[in-house]
Design a protein that fits this description.
The complex is a heterodimer of chains A (241) and B (324). Chain A is mostly helical and 241 residues long. Chain A has seven helices and four strands, in the order H-H-H-H-E-E-H-H-E-E-H. Chain A has helices at 3-13, 26-46, 94-99, 107-110, 164-169, 173-181, 203-206; strands spanning 150-152, 158-160, 187-189, 198-200. In chain A, a hairpin with a 5-residue loop joins strand 1 (150-152) and strand 2 (158-160). In chain A, helix 1 (3-13) packs across helix 2 (26-46). Chain A is extended, with a radius of gyration of 23 Å. Chain A starts with a helix and ends in a 35-residue tail after the last helix. With 324 residues, chain B is an alpha+beta fold. In chain B, 29% of the residues lie in helices and 15% in strands. Chain B contains eleven helices and twelve strands. A four-stranded mixed beta sheet of chain B has the order 10-2-12-11, with helices on one face. In chain B, strands 1-8 form a two-stranded parallel ribbon. The longest helix of chain B has 21 residues, at 23-43. The chains are: A mainly alpha (241), B alpha+beta (324). Chains A and B meet through strand 3 of A and helix 6, strand 3, helix 10, strand 10 and helix 11 of B.
Amino acid sequence: MKLPALIRTALGGGLARGWRLGSRSPAGAVALAGGIGLIALLLVHAQGVPIAPPAATNALPRMPVVPRPPAQQPPVGLAADAYLDKTPPRETKGLDLVKLGWTYNCMECHKLFPAKWHYDRPMNEHKDLKLDHGNNRFCLNCHHPKNRNAFVDYDGAEIAQADVVQLCAKCHGPTYRDWQAGVHGRQNGHWDAKKGDKTKLRCIQCHDPHAPNFQAMKPQPALVYPPRAAHQPKAAGAAQH
Amino acid sequence: MNEIPANQQSPRTLEQVYRPLNRRTFLKGGAATVAGMAGLVAALKPLLALEKGDLTLDDLLQKHYRELKPDELQRILKSLADKCEQERGVRPNLRDLKPLDGVEFGYALNLTRCVGCRRCAHACLKENNQSRDRWDDIEMSYIRVLEMNKGAINVETSNHYYAPETVPQKDKYYLPVQCHQCRQSPCTKVCPVQATWQEKDGVVVVDYNWCIGCRYCMAACPYDARRFNYKKPTIEKAAINPNQGYLSNRLRPKGVVEKCTFCLHRTREGKYPACLEVCPTGARVFGNLLDPDSEINYILNNKRVYVLKEEVGTLPRFYYFFDK
């Protein structure tokens, strides 16, 4: 039952960092992991990617680390404004999985797993997820327990992936109101609706839903301090005498 | 009292009376004549530029922008475009966009959201063809991002040279400052030749062909919003934005003042300004103050709005606001 998924994982996911282990018992997991590692070794080696040998009886084999290209956001704004750097603060991750041949059908795997509020072992699949979203400590705070392709509403109804704004609006009412008014979030294109359209980014195009605070970013180069000046620039807040 | 009789004059020589040309007066007069001629030549020197082709007769005899007839303006636009193509190798799409009816621009900036990444200041360069020796030289950018200490809005302890590894820094917030397009604009009042004025849509513009470079406006501006071309602008051919407006981002000559125009070559075509387009956090809001449903009016009606240096009475069209 798991075999097709495993082979597909070894083929496509061997390049990515995801491995699907269905087994519960540690011994079974190790055995299964060894097998996966062997398949992956054969398959991945054939593609010329160096891989660490599957090792140690009491540890999972080290996964090959493949550098991931930064994902491109879909273009925003006008084509004529391509010379302006409109990179949003978030690098998307989902899109490069799609590039690697994945689909967004979460239920391919999740039909195997029962929906639980809390798993007492670390997740194997979504290891890169760091949940830092206030009180939302559980997947099922937002994801639908029966259908992982959807989000969950107050009453247990499904919110489609495309309507993710409605999900965020459940808690972030004032922000949602501002977003609707066009005052929160990025807008690009035309301010004048008579002259043309504007593109409006949705919540998760800027915010990582699992850790919605913006990551600190590198500032663009500073104003050059005049070389003719005698003193170094004073730091903001330096004592004024 | 010993009065001197009226007919009794102090003795004077004949030479003193008739002042004939002697060596001293000859030299004096000669020097004065030479100086006068030199002054005349200096005054007519621009005509030499005319001879060399640096200046056309149209430039020399051009009227003030607001007195130009449409055909005269078209001729000037064409000659400026020709000059740009000849000097820089780029044929600009140079237009003169008039203010839209029923539009008054307003700008708001969310101080809760701004992280101080300076993308706006750099986008301003890309859009407005400012002079720069290197790609990252933002000396002439119309936007200065000030790093401020949390707890007060005190520009005296701010720093616009900040360059940490990452922003935002703890205990700091960031205040980008650009032209506030004031309703009571001190810069336009001090201009001795009326080379800068407020347009109908609120944008304060400079006619670079009329500006004499006295920089009174720079001294009058409380927001340090104006920049001066101390030298002939240097800009790489590849960096030139060909989408240009006569009153905004066309290539400037040496010795004139320039400033933010809310990207009027964009905004008068209905587009957002360049600084708003690139803001990664969406801290910038732009719109029509006369449209009650506009985004800018939503800010003014619903948010805590702050006006920088309100006490100087300039009544800006640029507002800062807070989310929390």
